[in-house]
Amino acid sequence: MYTQQSVEEGLKLIEARSYNEAITLFSAIVLKDSSNLKALNGLAQACNGAGDLPRAIQIYELSLDKDPSQSDIWVAYGNLFYNKGNSKKAAKGYRQAIKYDSTHVRGLNNLAMVLKDLGNYDEAETHFLEAIYFDSTYSLAMRNLGDIYLKQHKTEKAILWLEKATSADPKSLYGLYWLGRAHVQNNNIQQGIQYFLEVLAQKPDLPQVNHDLGKAYFANRNYKKALEHVQYALKRNSSMIPYYITLSHIYDHMQQEKKAFAALQDALTIDRSVAEIYIERGNIHKNAGRFEDALKEYNLAVLIKPELWLSHYKSGVALYYLTRLDEAEAAFLKAEELQPENGSTDHFLGIISLAKDKNKEAENWLLKAAELEGVSADVWFHLGEAQMRLGQWKNAEKSLLQSYNLDSYNAESLYSLGQVYKKRGKLDKSLEYLNKFKEIEEFEKKTESLNKIIRLNPNDLTLRLELATLYEDQKRIDQAIMILRQAAYLGSIEAENKLKNLLVKNRP
């Protein structure tokens, strides 16, 4: 007769990954005593470890038929399906676990994970909170809850829960990594960088963390460190297409177009059916003003992944700049259908309505865009323009001032403010803003011309130094620093020295 000790021996064999020996032992126990649920569950676990998933499922079902109140086994059963990508059956298993034990924290957490994967964030949030309520130290549920808030761009809530997760489990590198992501998303770039560095201090080879650290450095326009970490991520895992896309994006921002395209070509050799590669290729063409070429790439993305809202949105942008307004509108409406409540899409639908002289319709779209993207100076400018056309001069003034407060170098807002104040009889203010407009317009002509030349001659460092000087003369120090960092990365000692001096002079 097999004893409890025999079951324990079988579980030790599973721990040692001696699955076939465990199967032999548990099979013998079950053959003698089919009511031994611990042995039956051990057999299912061993079968799963050995890769015999159908048999593992069959044995778990047999065990659950004998005693359906085994919540732990319902979770294990659900996990088999979750790992296979069968969310529906996984959720059924987790719901059964909760049915028999409403305080089962792993059942609650795992059900919430399935719901999160399916985009059902509200119900997922409820179950994660329940899991945390029943176990206030359950850091995994806290991290998952933080991840939901990240996906919903509720970054302050995400940071709160990820900090709680880190406090509950300070040794978890996942917790530190996710907390870093949350801070970057909340525009606390430097703080996010510190968390990523803390993770890499313990495990320097993690490709995803290196990639995200590189993106964070890029957000701070530290091109050298950005490229260093993204390239290292690719060295550790050369099959990750998002890494190539990030690398391309950095090169394009530095107007290194050939290198940007080369990175995407490497991605295409891995998989030609990834829509995001074609979107990034389109972005490079768009940034260079080649809208027909951009449209071809965006349309390829639409063909490959028609359910991706961004493909339609990008096609709409290119069509708008090609003045094909009806087609652009159709593309944006499709993007809106696929991802409602998107301020960028609503913004362009408002711009198209303006171009068609549908001013009230434009105002409606732009009010919605302003609600969703209140930090966009362009949205507020176009809303002000719609309100000017509708004769809403006070509202137009408020919208245009909001645009000006967000970006005091927005030439269009300055010109429109001049017109609003002229209409309202405030001639001194009108003149003030129109003079600012003329100054900015002249400056933008110079920088636009210089940027075009730089794109054609990306290795001419004197052009970048000239551009940096233009920005510095206008007291646009952030832009000057960005250009000097590009030139310094490309090898200009003069840019490096100027950058050091500028950073010292403008130290907070």
SSE string, helix = H, strand = E? HHHHHHHHHHHHHHHHHHHHHHHHHHHHH
Low-confidence stretches: none
CATH superfamily (homologous) name of the domain at 345-448: Tetratricopeptide repeat domain
Beta-strand residue fraction: under 5%
The CATH class name of the domain at 345-448 reads Mainly Alpha
**Oligomer class:** single chain
Any idea what the radius of gyration is? 29 Å
SSE class:
mainly alpha
Portion of residues within helices? over 70%
Q: Mind summarizing the main beta sheet?
A: none
In the CATH hierarchy, the third-tier topology of the domain at 345-448 is known as Serine Threonine Protein Phosphatase 5, Tetratricopeptide repeat
The overall pLDDT average reads: 94
Second CATH tier, the architecture of the domain at 345-448: Alpha Horseshoe
**Annotation, overall tally of beta strands:** 0
End-to-end distance: 78 Å
Structural shape: elongated
The number of helical segments is: 29
